[in-house]
Task: structure prediction
Amino acid sequence: MHVYTSPYIHPLSHARTNATFSSFFFHNGQWTSYKSTITRGPHSLHLTVHPAPQSLPRSAYKPVDALSTSRLLKVYSELSKARLSILNVLAVMSGMALSPLPTTVPILLSTAVGTAFCCASANTLNQLQEVPFDAQMARTRNRPLVRRAITPFHATGFAIATGIAGPVVLWTMTNPATAILGASNILLYAGAYTWMKRKSIWNTWVGAVVGAVPALMGWTASGGHLLPSPSYPVHFFLPPFLTTPTDFPLDLSMIDNPLAPFAFFMLMFSWQFPHFNGLSHAVRGSYAQAGYRMLSVLDPNKNALVSLRHAVLLTSTCSILIPLSGLTTWWFALTSLPANLICLEAAWRFWKEGGDKQAMKVFRHSLWYLPVILGLMMFHKQGIAWPVQSSLGSDSPDGSSKEENQKEKEV
Amino acid sequence: MLLLPRPPGGLSRFSHRLLHVSKPCSKVLVGPPDPISHLRPVIYDDVPKPSPPSLRHHPYSLSEFDPEPERNQSPYELHWKLQRQQLDDLNQNFWLDSNCRFEAAKQAVIEGLPSTASPLDKERALSEFYKQWLMQERSRLDQYTDSWRNRNVACILLSARVHWQKLLRLTGLSK
Result:
C-alpha cells in the first residue's frame, strides 16, 4: 500500500513550492523524528506538511475490558442494534395481529425470537463491514467494534450463530416461507444495502425494502399467502356505498388475499422515505465526510421531493389501498386522514424550503406516525366482533387492545 | 498517488516500554479517538517486538524471532498480526489525509461566504460543498473501500485460522 512516486515540479513554480519540495529531500531528520505528516493537496501535487499531534502518552491508553457475562450481553445487544431489532419484531407482530388467520402464542413467540435473531445477525454483519466509517460519524462512534470492545472474529461468530438460529427457528416453528424471507432480509441488508451505501444512491430504496419485509414475514408466519393463485385470488373490499346489500355480511375469509400483505408492505415501504430522507438531510455533512453516497448529499432537492412523493403515496395507501384490501374497514380512511395530512404538510414544506429544521420536523413526525397508524389499523381491523352500530361497516368506537384481538383469534 | 504513511501506531510508543518482557500477555490497549481521523489507536501487546530505534526503517522485520524459542509465534500468528497492524495503519493514513483536506476545504467554503449570508444560505453553500466533495473523492473512496473490505475479510479469516490452530494444539490433535 506504500506507493512512492516522484512529484513533478514545474521549473517556473514559485518559491513556496520549492521550499516545500526541498524540505522533502534535504531534512532527513523528519523521517526519524516523526514530527510531521505530509499529505497531498486535492487538485495538485502540492505537498502540505502537517505538524503531527502530540504523540499520546502511554497513560492515555486504557486496556480493553474483559468480557464478563453482563458486559458480553450488553455488547451483543449493541451489535444487534437492540432498539432497531425490537421495532422490527414489533412490525412482524403487527403483521400477525392484522392477519385474519388464527394464530397461537407459541407461534407468536417463536416468530418474535426468530425475527430477533435474524435482525441481530444482519445488524452485526453490517457493523463488521463499516468499522472505520462508523468511527467517522458522531452518531455511530460508540459502537462496540469501533471502540474495540469486541474482536471482529468474536462478532463474526455471533453473526453466524444468530444468522443460522433465526431462520432455523422460523422454519421449524412457523413455515419455510417466513424463514426464507428472514434469511433473504439478512442477505439484502448485510450484503446488498451495506455494499450499495458506498456505491449508489439507490441503497435507500433497497433499505426501504429491508424495512418492509418484516410486514410480509408477520403475514406468512400466521399462515397467509403472499402471491395470487387460483385458490387465493385478489379480492377487493369496496366501500359500503359502492356495494349492493346482498354483499353483506362480508366474507371475511377473503381477507386472506394477496392484496392485504401488499398493502401493508406498501405502507411500511413508503414510510421509510420521509423517515430516512429527513434524518439523512440533517446529517448529510457526516455522510459526505465519511464518503457515503446518499441522495441528501448529491441532490438535496431530489431528496426532499422523494420524501414528498412517498408522503403522498402513504396518504393514498391509507385512504384507498388498505381498506380496499380488507385489512381494515373504510372508517380507517377517515381516521387516518389527520395524521396523513400533518405529515404531508411537513413534507411539502421540506421540499419548498429545504432547511435542516424542516428536515428534522419530517423525521420527528415519522416517529409518531407509524405507531399511530398501526394502532388505528388494529382498531379498525376488519372482522372484529363489535356490535354493529352503523351500516358503514362492522366497527364501533369502543376501546380495544391488541391483547383482546389475540385472545379472540386464539379461541 | 503519493501517500506517505504515518509510522505504525504501536511502534513509536515502544520506546517507552521495556524491550525484555518476561511473560507475554495478551492485553490490548485502546487510546482515545484521534482528533482528526477519529480512529482509536490500538497497541496490541502481543505484536512482534519492534526493531531498535536506529533501524526503524529497515525493510525487513528484524524482530520477527523472539530470543526465547518457545515464545516464537507460529507463522499464522505472525501473518495475522502483521496484517492487523497494516490494516490499522491503512485506515489511519487514509482518514487522516481525507479529513485534513475535508476540514480545510469546509473552512474555506464557510470563510468565503459574505457577512450578509443567512443561516439558510450557509446551509445551501455547505450542501453544494458536500456534493462537490463526494464527486471529487469518488475514485479515492472506491479504492479505499475495496481495500478495506478485502483486508477486513482477510484479517478475520487469518484470525480464525490462528484460533483453529490453537484449538488443535490444545486438544492435542495437531502434529
In short: The two ends of chain A are 67 Å apart (CA to CA). Residues 225-398 of chain A form one domain. Residues 1-6, 386-411 of chain A have pLDDT under 50 and may be disordered.
